[in-house]
Amino acid sequence: MDTDNKILFFGDTHGGFDHCADIVRQIRPQAIVFLGDIQTPYPFHEQLADIINLTEVWWIHGNHDTDTEQQYDNLFLSELKHRNLSGRVCEVAGVRIAGLGGVFRGKIWDPAKSGWNFYSPEEFIARGGFRAGWRNGVNLRHRSTIFPSEYEALLKENADVLVTHEAPSCNRFGFQVLDHLARHLGVHTHFHGHHHDNYDYSAHYVRMGFCTYSVGYRGVTALDGRIILPGEMDGLHENRVARIMHGS
């Protein structure tokens, strides 16, 4: 096996898993990492039953993984719940990977503005009243919200690779705080999902201090950044922007 293929990163699946088994059987990676918006229609371990004994499965959540209680339970309460990388660093196929699932939401924390409204889930519950809670924690929607407390806890760690659902600053909708996190962790590579497209960020690598790759909608990317399977929507966003700029 090519060592650069030992870990594969899977972009937003949004409930579509037809490509997963073929890729794993063909390449036989030691581990795979899902980058959020998984939206598994069945318990995650059942959804991946064909490959769960062929590779290690790891994941972070995206904003849509808390759209319904069923989708939340299928992922967070599955037999793969212990493979959630969000908020911690784990050794995966010999690589230290840090994870930060979910998205920034202004009600909690908008990193583009100064300060935050709620530092932690506990503070949100204490100040948010009855409607802020669900199952002895924050409400369902904010189970996929990034709180400053989780972010700051990761700043104390070190890792080789960072995976997030949100994008860093090289994306027009990205966040500088993720650049800051990656540098504090000391990672050499970062992968993200969320934006359903593949972008060439290489012009930003020197400024940022690490390589970063966007993995497209149902796309797959290797540890060294090579595209194993293009995303189904790769290029659509950039082409749409180009048509707008040229007035077509």
From TrEMBL:
Positions of the Calcineurin-like phosphoesterase domain: 6-197
Cited SUPFAM superfamilies: Metallo-dependent phosphatases
Residue stretches spanning the membrane: none
GO MF annotations, alphabetized: hydrolase activity
Record Pfam families: Metallophos
Protein name, as recorded: Calcineurin-like phosphoesterase domain-containing protein
Provenance organism: Advenella faeciporci
Biological classification of the source: Bacteria, Pseudomonadati, Pseudomonadota, Betaproteobacteria, Burkholderiales
